[in-house]
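Aim 2 progress. For Cytidine deaminase, the working sequence is reproduced below.
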Amino acid sequence: MLKALVRKSQEARNQAYCPYSKFRVGAAVLASNGTVFTGCNVENACYTAGLCAERTAICKAVSEGHTSFKAIAIASDLEDRFISPCGACRQFMREFGSQWDVYLSKSDGSYKLMTVEELLPCSFGGAPRNRAVFLAFGVGWG
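Predicted structure tokens for this construct:
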């Protein structure tokens, strides 16, 4: 299953819309029930409006009712090092748990395994824990 997940992230990379950076990224997230959702990076002329591959894949899964994940594989065209998610994607992944696997790959398909916790130590996240914080500041929940 792992090799298939990495392969799906590579396939998703091929769909990337990146006319500005030319840096293609793909991701494949494995939901707890075994369903795989893929995503690619989508750039925008307004740079901050772009979306990373990891968040695209996770949003596709969430929009289909999945919020529990086993793993995510990330692929790019980097040959000399493993692709690593940006800080926003690390925090986004953390929202859905800290102990799921993240496979960082190179263009040849080799990979390095880390957990969300290893990528974002001492993190803040997860809806149940944060509810009191939101309520303390008078922010609505849900």
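The chain has a mean pLDDT of 91. This observation will guide construct design in the next reporting period.
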